[in-house]
Specification:
It is built from seven helices and five strands, in the order H-H-H-H-H-E-H-E-H-E-E-E. By secondary structure, the chain is of the alpha+beta class.
Length: 188
């Protein structure tokens, strides 16, 4: 057996790949050298072809194109670049878990900051009902419901959407949780 040749695309030398009987032929050596020259610019462009390891630096329009290629139905082009990157990063896992509480919370949290889904038993509603608590008010109600309906299970019913906006006031609220319930205490 011959010597082992360690070569990467960055250090391509096709003359080393020639069989021993061809290495002395100037025509074969010239052809191999020409192949190296032709392939060098193509090899330099290979990192540009990789998309997933560059999602953090892709421009907005390329994020939209990638979402279109992946067929992400809850994609919205009006979202911030950070929200788009977050949705793209989670999309393979989300497609497997559509219709779950986790999927609804994850997608809505990407677009509308923090989101919590409360199931029907958590607030005394009928089975298959839920409500959503979001941190920031959606600018477009129609878009919010479109995304929600694409991610939630079709048999689930959204009873309400509560917006929890932080308003600076001079009141501190504390909660004490005990065996017999919850007591709210307001400190002024």
């Amino acid at each position: 057996m011959g010597d082992r040749i360690d070569m990467t695309l960055d250090s391509l030398d096709t003359t080393l790949l020639l069989p021993a009987f061809m290495r002395g032929d100037p025509t074969c050596l010239g052809l191999a050298s020409a192949v190296d020259t032709i392939f060098a610019p193509l090899i330099a462009r290979i990192p540009d072809l990789s998309t997933w390891n560059r999602v953090d630096v892709l421009p907005d329009h390329e994020l939209d194109e990638l979402a279109w290629e992946l067929g992400i139905p809850w994609w919205t082009q009006d979202a911030s670049a950070d929200a788009k990157r977050q949705v793209l990063a989670m999309s393979p896992k989300l497609l497997l878990r559509l219709g779950t509480k986790w999927a609804v919370e994850t997608v809505l949290s990407a677009y509308y900051h923090q989101c919590v889904v409360q199931e029907w038993w958590e607030y005394g509603a009928e089975p298959h009902h839920f409500r959503v608590v979001v941190q920031s008010y959606p600018d477009d109600d129609v878009e919010f419901y479109r995304i929600l309906n694409l991610v939630k299970r079709a048999s689930q019913v959204c009873d309400e959407i509560t917006v929890m906006e932080q308003v600076p006031v001079g009141v501190n609220v504390g909660y004490a949780v005990g065996v017999f319930g919850v007591e709210q205490v307001i400190f002024e």
